[in-house]
Amino acid sequence: MGVSGALLVSIIPALILIHLYYSPYTKVEESFNIQATHDILTHGIPSQDYSRALAVNFDHVSYPGSVPRTFVGALLLAGLSRPWIAFLSHPYQVQLLVRSLLGLVNATSLILLGIAVQKAFGRPARIWFTLLQASQFHVIYYASRTLPNMFAFALSTLALRSLLLAGSYPEMDKAASKHYRLSLYLLTVAGIIFRSELAILLACTTLYLLSRGKISITGTILPAGVGGVAIGLLSTISIDSFFWQTFPLWPEWTGFYYNTIQGHSAAWGTSPWYFYVLNALPRLLINPMTYIILIPLAIINPTSRQHSIDITIPSTGFVVLYSFLPHKEWRFIIYVIPGLTAVAAAGSSWIWTRRAKATLYRLLSLGLVISVVASFVISTALLAVSSLNYPGGAALTKLHEIAGRGNNGSRIHVDNLSCQTGVTRFLERHDSSQSVHSSNLWDPVEHPRGKWLYDKTEDPSLLLDPAFWCKFDYVLAERPEKVIGKWRILAVQYGFSGVRILRPGQPRFHHAPETVEELQLEEGSKSSGESNQPKYALLDMLREKVTRGWWIMVKMEPKIRILENLDRC
Which GO BP terms sit in this record (predicted)? Predict the structure, then answer.
């Protein structure tokens, strides 16, 4: 592998890690897997008195959620992380390690898919696949996030790789049959363990391949199905029945029954039938050339048509059928994005390799380059904005800085918004005599004063009891007026609240800091270090000279107040 090959391979994992670095905290959708990974790493797998050990040490017992979820992904992440945590000095670093490993697993699946794209469409297509995929915000940003979808994403992407490789061999060839079986097997395992919606993608892929005579029931479907079902069910039922202390338990079936058959998912909101096609897919792909020009061109072009159809028809069928469910989220269809990007890469390759032959190809090539650069710019802006959506994690980190290292311990209450926007057990401080991998780290049982104790009580009756509040030293609160007692605000953590369009002549600052720039400038003026004034003088100059007075600023608003108790029990 030469320098260009190494650079090509490194682009996607490097960008995933950069996104992780700039947005290190998590949200509520990721909380189960990140907390479960923490608990396994910290307390291990109980070997005796299981029920009590799980109840005392594992977060899911106290906060089970509406339906049980699988521990398989968390167990795998904990296993991958365990050899490395001895080199780390703080639990926060372990959270970054855990997310980095998941991100690198997903990056590896995309790299392997890129190699398959090269075999199917040629090296230029692989280069364009890497550029198109790297410039898409959602896949790169969420690749390291412990959503169940991103565990399934790695398997579905590898399944797509096998599907693409199978098409490179003659039909019914042994090698092709092997790849088809692996593709269906991986989709089956991913659907059973992680995300049940992949059953639709599996069905669409199987029916398409069967209708084209590419697979047989006895030679491909049955071996892949039986093997996938056996491995998937054996893994999830054995692992999850133990951790949830309910036998037999198949979490993904329980979630499917609760959300889809009983219809509880609609409580989270519904969207029109066209949401995925007209909203989610364009947002996920970002680059409009992808679906307006590149994918249609790859399907029309005889040299790339068959491979492109093999990917596009099952993916389209999955999106169309899934559109019948009322509750829709973009992450439910993220599995089709690498495949559609691969098809678009074939169209990109066709245009790029012919740029010297005709004016039309030169113009399309120029448009392709400009659109990819613009996609990178948009993705970078989305990263900057998205990193502001985690005030809970930032507030807890700020509280630890305020409390100082000389503090031997405190009792802290964390409210619901803080838990939803970044607070995890990896962020909690622990006694200095303990290492990051101590067996009793963050034990949530009652500690004497001198230890750090974190509370997430949501019981309304307790929150109305003054005796409940007086035992805490600090509180992270969205609504400080609901905190009973005598408190003072130590700090305020701001968070994203939209964007503001500045018109010519409109001042950049208001009376109170509202935008990211204002907050940074305010912080800079309070510190003894270098001022932010030159930076904003440059922005003002750009606004005046380049955009003629127009500007886009990110609006911020107070999200979390850090309160100190002035009247402890």
Answer: protein N-linked glycosylation
Q: What is the mean pLDDT of the chain?
A: 90
Q: What is the pTM of this model?
A: 0.91
d(CA 175, CA 165) in angstroms, rounded, equals 9
* 168-192 burial code (b ≥16 CB/10 A, e <16): eeeeeeeebbebbbbbbbbbbbbbb
Burial class from Cβ neighbours inside 10 Å (0-12, 13-18, 19+) for residue 53 reads: middle
Count the Cβ atoms, other than its own, within 10 Å of residue 235.
17
- Nearest Cα to 37, choosing from 148, 122, 174, 173? 148
The Cα–Cα gap between 101 and 90 comes to 17
Higher pLDDT, 5 or 373: 373
Q: What is the DSSP letter of 403?
A: H
> 411-414 and 453-455 as β-strands: parallel, antiparallel, unpaired?
parallel
Cα 54 to the center of its chain, rounded Å: 27
**Bridge partner list, 553:** 500
- pLDDT (tens digit per residue) in 241-300: 999 999 999 999 999 999 999 989 988 899 999 999 999 999 999 999 999 999 999 999
Give DSSP secondary structure letters for 406-430: T----EEEE-HHHHHTT--GGG---
All structural domains of the chain with their residue ranges: 3-387, 391-503+550-565
